[in-house]
């Protein structure tokens, strides 16, 4: 962890699984007035980012039916896919999760759509919510 002051945990973004970006993006961008934020596509999803104050909304369209988002939509339909929390120290947070017996999807952080290190926690440990952790 760096010598920068601790900021505390905050909501970084909410990922919403959608069948198609073209159908829903105008609602968030034009009707709600949320500015677009360029994001890289990741994990078999086309991603449109939108600023919501200090947080983002990520609209996640499956690139292929067998992608994680494609499977999610086929099983559950469109809707909230995950909540991402920014933490001061991702490695420390993952170590605390392990010590608490929280099941991890990503044992080792990887790069996410914003180019930041991320790791997912299994929903069985978080009341059915897929939680992503990232660093500031």
UniProtKB/TrEMBL annotation:
Top-level division of the source organism's lineage: Bacteria
GO MF term set: metal ion binding; methylmalonyl-CoA epimerase activity
Gene Ontology BP term (one): L-methylmalonyl-CoA metabolic process
Record-annotated VOC domain positions: 10-136
Alphabetical keyword list: Metal-binding
Cited Pfam families: Glyoxalase_4 (PF13669)
Family (UniProt): Belongs to the methylmalonyl-CoA epimerase family.
UniProt-listed NCBIfam families: metmalonyl_epim
Protein name: Methylmalonyl-CoA epimerase
Gene it is expressed from: mceE
């Amino acid at each position: 962890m760096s010598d920068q002051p601790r900021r505390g945990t905050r909501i970084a973004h909410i990922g919403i699984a959608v069948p198609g970006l073209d159908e829903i993006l105008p609602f968030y961008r034009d009707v709600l007035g949320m500015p677009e934020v360029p994001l890289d596509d990741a994990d078999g999803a086309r991603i449109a980012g939108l600023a919501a104050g200090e947080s983002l909304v990520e609209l996640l369209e499956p690139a292929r039916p067998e992608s994680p988002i494609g499977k999610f939509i086929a099983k559950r339909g469109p809707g909230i896919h995950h909540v991402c929390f920014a933490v001061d120290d991702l490695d420390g947070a993952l170590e605390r999760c392990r010590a608490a017996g929280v099941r991890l999807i990503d044992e080792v952080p990887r790069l996410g759509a914003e180019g930041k290190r991320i790791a997912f926690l299994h929903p069985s440990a978080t009341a059915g919510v897929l939680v992503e952790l990232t660093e500031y």
